[in-house]
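WARN retry 2 of 3 for item q-0093 after timeout on previous attempt; input resubmitted unchanged.
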Amino acid sequence: GEEHYNCISALHKSMRGSDENASLYWLARMLEGGEDPLYVARRLVRFASEDIGLADPLALTQAVAAYQGCHFIGMPECEVILAQCVVYFARAPKSIEVYRAYSNVKECLRMHTGPLPPVPLHLRNAPTKLMKNLGYGKGYKYNPMFKEPVEQDYLPEELKGTDFFKERKT
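OK item q-0093 returned
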């Protein structure tokens, strides 16, 4: 029932708040109450990117490994795998930078009226002669061939100068 959602919310918020003791408590309460460990593991995968993100990019690897470990061995043995992951997440630095930036991109797309801007010609693949003749791929700079950073636009002209990590374009 509702307690299922209340407990996962409490676990999520305890990890977000860096409270390892409370995080372990809510995890144990769920598992000892019969919760599917794979459900918890899936939520940890989401938490790794949503709440920890780039502050510790290895968090996602930890979460996926915990999910796989739970899938391989099941309960009760997988409880320690989940406990390790939960404590790791509670102790990890947190960042919602990517989560916020992606939300800003979605907002930009939702607020856009009319057709979406086309992909700039230089970013399009040109597998045929016709496409090459139409200018597909023309002027594209292949970054690995340069020793220094390449100046090149990757967003459509209408979005030039937009930084989804800092602002929303409406």
